[in-house]
Design a protein that fits this description.
about 140 residues; alpha+beta; Rossmann fold; two-stranded parallel ribbon; two-stranded antiparallel sheet; 4 strands; about 10% strand; globular
Length: about 140
Protein backbone atom coordinates (compact mmCIF):
# COMPACT_ATOMS: atom_id res chain seq x y z
CA UNK A 1 0.00 0.00 0.00
CA UNK A 2 1.26 3.42 -0.90
CA UNK A 3 -0.88 6.29 0.44
CA UNK A 4 -0.84 9.35 -1.82
CA UNK A 5 -1.21 12.99 -0.93
CA UNK A 6 -4.75 14.09 -1.91
CA UNK A 7 -3.31 17.40 -3.19
CA UNK A 8 -1.18 15.61 -5.82
CA UNK A 9 -1.34 16.82 -9.38
CA UNK A 10 -1.68 14.30 -12.19
CA UNK A 11 2.09 14.43 -12.74
CA UNK A 12 2.91 13.83 -9.04
CA UNK A 13 0.47 10.92 -8.77
CA UNK A 14 1.78 9.45 -12.04
CA UNK A 15 5.32 9.54 -10.60
CA UNK A 16 4.20 7.71 -7.46
CA UNK A 17 2.19 5.14 -9.42
CA UNK A 18 5.08 4.29 -11.74
CA UNK A 19 7.78 4.45 -9.05
CA UNK A 20 5.83 2.09 -6.78
CA UNK A 21 4.72 -0.15 -9.67
CA UNK A 22 1.12 0.25 -8.50
CA UNK A 23 -1.41 -2.21 -9.88
CA UNK A 24 -4.57 -0.42 -8.68
CA UNK A 25 -5.83 2.85 -7.21
CA UNK A 26 -8.35 3.30 -4.39
CA UNK A 27 -9.69 6.85 -4.18
CA UNK A 28 -12.74 8.99 -3.51
CA UNK A 29 -15.08 10.49 -6.12
CA UNK A 30 -13.70 14.01 -5.57
CA UNK A 31 -10.19 12.88 -6.57
CA UNK A 32 -11.32 10.59 -9.39
CA UNK A 33 -10.38 12.92 -12.29
CA UNK A 34 -6.70 13.05 -11.23
CA UNK A 35 -6.68 9.31 -10.46
CA UNK A 36 -8.15 8.49 -13.87
CA UNK A 37 -5.67 10.69 -15.76
CA UNK A 38 -2.62 9.47 -13.84
CA UNK A 39 -3.85 5.88 -13.91
CA UNK A 40 -4.28 5.98 -17.68
CA UNK A 41 -0.73 7.27 -18.13
CA UNK A 42 0.56 4.56 -15.74
CA UNK A 43 -1.34 1.82 -17.65
CA UNK A 44 -3.71 1.07 -14.77
CA UNK A 45 -6.98 -0.07 -16.34
CA UNK A 46 -10.19 1.73 -15.28
CA UNK A 47 -11.55 -1.48 -13.69
CA UNK A 48 -8.62 -1.30 -11.22
CA UNK A 49 -9.62 2.17 -10.04
CA UNK A 50 -11.79 1.57 -7.00
CA UNK A 51 -13.89 4.09 -5.08
CA UNK A 52 -14.71 4.54 -1.44
CA UNK A 53 -18.38 5.15 -0.65
CA UNK A 54 -20.40 3.97 -3.65
CA UNK A 55 -19.46 3.04 -7.17
CA UNK A 56 -19.62 5.77 -9.80
CA UNK A 57 -19.22 5.76 -13.57
CA UNK A 58 -18.76 1.98 -13.56
CA UNK A 59 -15.95 1.94 -10.99
CA UNK A 60 -16.07 -0.72 -8.28
CA UNK A 61 -16.77 0.15 -4.67
CA UNK A 62 -14.10 -0.76 -2.11
CA UNK A 63 -16.70 -3.08 -0.57
CA UNK A 64 -16.14 -5.44 -3.50
CA UNK A 65 -12.67 -6.10 -2.03
CA UNK A 66 -14.12 -7.19 1.31
CA UNK A 67 -15.89 -10.34 0.14
CA UNK A 68 -14.78 -13.65 1.63
CA UNK A 69 -14.13 -15.02 -1.87
CA UNK A 70 -11.69 -12.19 -2.65
CA UNK A 71 -9.93 -12.47 0.72
CA UNK A 72 -9.39 -16.22 0.37
CA UNK A 73 -7.99 -15.91 -3.14
CA UNK A 74 -5.46 -13.20 -2.26
CA UNK A 75 -4.42 -14.16 1.26
CA UNK A 76 -0.77 -15.06 1.68
CA UNK A 77 1.64 -15.59 4.55
CA UNK A 78 2.88 -12.30 6.00
CA UNK A 79 6.11 -12.04 7.96
CA UNK A 80 7.23 -9.15 10.18
CA UNK A 81 9.85 -8.05 7.64
CA UNK A 82 7.43 -7.91 4.70
CA UNK A 83 6.66 -4.51 3.21
CA UNK A 84 3.49 -3.03 4.74
CA UNK A 85 3.52 0.55 3.45
CA UNK A 86 5.41 2.49 0.85
CA UNK A 87 5.03 6.04 2.15
CA UNK A 88 6.22 8.89 -0.05
CA UNK A 89 8.13 11.94 1.18
CA UNK A 90 6.90 15.44 0.52
CA UNK A 91 9.39 15.84 -2.30
CA UNK A 92 10.87 19.05 -0.88
CA UNK A 93 14.20 18.34 -2.61
CA UNK A 94 12.78 17.05 -5.89
CA UNK A 95 10.43 14.21 -6.70
CA UNK A 96 8.83 12.37 -3.78
CA UNK A 97 10.77 9.31 -2.64
CA UNK A 98 9.28 6.06 -1.36
CA UNK A 99 10.05 5.07 2.23
CA UNK A 100 9.65 1.35 2.87
CA UNK A 101 7.97 0.42 6.15
CA UNK A 102 7.63 -3.20 7.25
CA UNK A 103 4.95 -4.75 9.43
CA UNK A 104 7.56 -4.79 12.21
CA UNK A 105 8.04 -1.00 11.81
CA UNK A 106 4.29 -0.33 12.08
CA UNK A 107 3.75 -2.65 15.07
CA UNK A 108 6.82 -1.25 16.88
CA UNK A 109 5.57 2.30 16.36
CA UNK A 110 2.09 1.39 17.62
CA UNK A 111 3.57 -0.31 20.70
CA UNK A 112 5.76 2.72 21.46
CA UNK A 113 2.71 4.98 21.29
CA UNK A 114 0.66 2.60 23.43
CA UNK A 115 3.44 2.39 26.03
CA UNK A 116 3.80 6.18 26.12
CA UNK A 117 0.07 6.71 26.61
CA UNK A 118 -0.51 3.72 28.90
CA UNK A 119 -0.29 5.73 32.11
CA UNK A 120 -2.70 8.45 30.98
CA UNK A 121 -5.21 6.41 28.96
CA UNK A 122 -7.25 3.25 29.26
CA UNK A 123 -8.02 1.18 26.14
CA UNK A 124 -11.65 0.52 27.12
CA UNK A 125 -12.75 4.14 27.52
CA UNK A 126 -10.25 6.52 25.92
CA UNK A 127 -9.64 7.48 22.31
CA UNK A 128 -6.66 9.11 20.65
CA UNK A 129 -7.01 11.40 17.65
CA UNK A 130 -4.32 11.40 14.97
CA UNK A 131 -3.52 14.99 14.03
CA UNK A 132 -1.31 14.27 11.02
CA UNK A 133 -2.63 13.03 7.68
CA UNK A 134 -1.98 9.32 7.18
CA UNK A 135 0.53 9.99 4.43
CA UNK A 136 2.88 11.49 7.05
CA UNK A 137 3.75 8.10 8.50
Amino acid sequence: MSPANPAYTEEELYHQLTDSKAKAIITIAELLPVALAAGKRANIPPERIILFKSSEDGHKSYKSLLSDKHAESTRGKITPNDLAFLAYSSGTTGLAKGVMLTHRNIVSNALMGANQEAMAMHWSKDLMVSFLPFYHI
